[in-house]
Write a structure and sequence with these properties.
It is a single chain. By secondary structure, this protein is mostly helical. About 45% of the residues are buried. It folds into two domains: about 350 residues, no CATH class; about 90 residues, no CATH class. A five-stranded mixed β-sheet has the order 2-1-3-5-4, sandwiched between helices. The chain contains 21 helices and five strands.
């Protein structure tokens, strides 16, 4: 607390962004703009982990499979006790708290040097304001956001020359998700450039790089396949490069020119994929990427981020939406302002400071406005009334959901799953299995069904003798198995 009393401006900034973040994330959850994938599945995992049992992914899978086979995310185990306090809002609150903590890490990092201390608050504001952070907050919870928020503390402890703290922080970042270890290997390579003249840290970073690569290989090629139903890692979706990481590496080495060109073009020929990569790159440039030219070590840290985005088969990965850009935030926040601090001309430093912060703001405004790829702007436009309303009575829906018994088995449409996920068994509709209740609404998107198929399912349920309508209003239904006797 003494630290914040001595740095009141930082406290003001933290409170301001805590409010902004809550208006995005918490409000979205209340208004049913969070979904089975991923908040619902992860919240259900909290329920299992706090009871010392594995999660079987049946929220979104017909056939059960250990959730760690989908993403090797140990954070959910660590955070699970908090569900007893914060309920279905747990992971959203955790995500906000860690992002705010990440900004404090950036602030303290810049205070370590008299030369950079004047940029501590500016770098922190940049991090909080970065479009990748805002976009991640607008779409559920993801552990790579937590890892990105911890990275400044890895930099901080390294600059403080604290080996144990640095190692613990590296480990804390690695256990977030399997692909983060590959990113951290390149972060270590970048830092190796920065610390090359310091023998101890040179060898430490070489060891850390090797450990990250080993962790990546072990988890993706041994552990995850061993616990998956198909005995394979499920997230290698880079058909342009090959069918596995080995083929991808070989392709990059054998076809460097073609590989480089693909970073800028729509290589899938998807009709909605044109200019999506270009838009993302332009937003990065507007946000100050060009300033990092003076600190090439930070470009090294970004290499796997560009590769995992732009070579992916799914065009939604290429753009500015969801959590797919959040890792850029800490690298750019530190790299840009470290570069500015080393410029000799005071006027040029001021100009670049204004351009970087102003550009960061403009890029964030852009994602709230028109983007090449469709995004649900109601999730992010906190300055418009549509963010705080739905075309149905949200309060009544919450009241209706509260009547479903805590131990009941439920099949629910995607937006309702996160609110009902703290139970043994919950399925994303149309998975029904042994569900005792079904929760659906014609006012919500039909995913993963088409509109026609979804309407057909509602008609089937109403016509079936197996289900009775327990509650109906304005297109919102709660069905109950006919053999259950209870009053609403």
């Amino acid at each position: 607390m003494r630290f914040f009393q001595a740095h009141k401006n930082l406290l003001i900034v933290i409170v301001f962004f805590a409010i902004i973040y809550s208006l995005i994330s918490i409000v979205n959850h209340y208004y049913f703009r969070t979904y089975a994938l991923d908040l619902g599945a992860y919240t259900n995992a909290l329920y299992d982990y706090i009871r010392f049992q594995c999660n079987d992914s049946t929220v979104f899978r017909e056939v059960g499979e250990n959730l760690l086979a989908d993403h090797f995310d140990l954070y959910l185990i660590i955070f699970s006790p908090l569900a007893l306090i914060f309920g279905s809002y747990t992971l959203l609150i955790v995500q906000i708290a860690f992002i705010l903590l990440g900004g404090v890490g950036i602030y303290k990092y810049f205070l370590l040097s008299e030369k950079t201390s004047r940029y501590a608050l500016s770098a922190t504001i940049y991090f909080y304001l970065f479009f990748g952070v805002i976009s991640a907050l607008s779409f559920d919870y993801h552990s790579n956001t937590i890892a990105a928020a911890l990275l400044p503390w890895f930099f901080y402890w390294m600059k403080k020359r604290k080996v144990l703290a640095c190692s613990m922080m590296l480990l804390a970042i690695l256990v977030s998700k399997e692909n983060i270890s590959l990113w951290m290997a390149f972060v270590c390579l970048g830092l190796l450039v920065e610390y090359w003249k310091k023998p101890f840290w040179r060898y430490y970073l070489l060891l850390a790089f090797s450990f990250c690569i080993l962790y990546f290989v072990l988890i993706t090629m041994v552990v995850m396949p061993a616990i998956s139903n198909k005995l394979a890692y499920p997230h290698f979706h880079y058909s342009f490069l090959g069918s596995n990481p080995s083929e991808a590496l070989l392709f990059l080495l054998e076809h460097p020119i073609e590989s480089f060109k693909t970073l800028f073009i729509n290589h899938t020929n998807h009709p909605n994929g044109d200019y999506v990569k270009l838009e993302f790159l332009l937003l990065l440039l507007v946000s100050g990427l060009y300033i990092v030219v003076r600190k090439p070590a930070y470009f090294i840290m970004l290499i796997p981020l560009f590769f995992q985005k732009f070579y992916h088969d799914n065009i939604s990965m290429w753009g500015i939406s969801a959590q797919y850009s959040v890792e850029f935030a800490p690298v750019l926040a530190i790299g840009i302002f470290a570069a500015i601090s080393e410029i000799k001309g005071a006027l040029l430093r001021k100009i670049l400071l204004v351009l970087s912060l102003g550009g960061c703001l403009l890029a964030t405004i852009r994602i709230m406005d028109r983007t090449m790829m469709y995004t649900d702007k109601s999730r992010i436009r906190i300055y418009q009334s549509m963010h705080y309303t739905r075309d149905y009575d949200v309060k009544k829906v919450h009241e209706a959901l509260s009547v479903i018994p805590p131990g009941a088995i439920v099949s629910a449409q995607s937006p309702f799953v996160p609110h009902l996920a703290l139970r043994d068994h919950i399925y994303q509709f149309p998975i029904i299995k042994d569900a005792e209740y079904i929760v659906i609404s014609a006012r919500e998107g039909p995913y993963p069904l088409s509109k026609e198929a979804f309407a057909g399912e509602i008609d089937k349920l109403k016509a079936s003798g197996d289900w009775e309508v327990l509650y109906w209003e304005d297109g919102f239904y709660i069905f109950r198995r006919a053999d259950r006797s209870a009053e609403f």
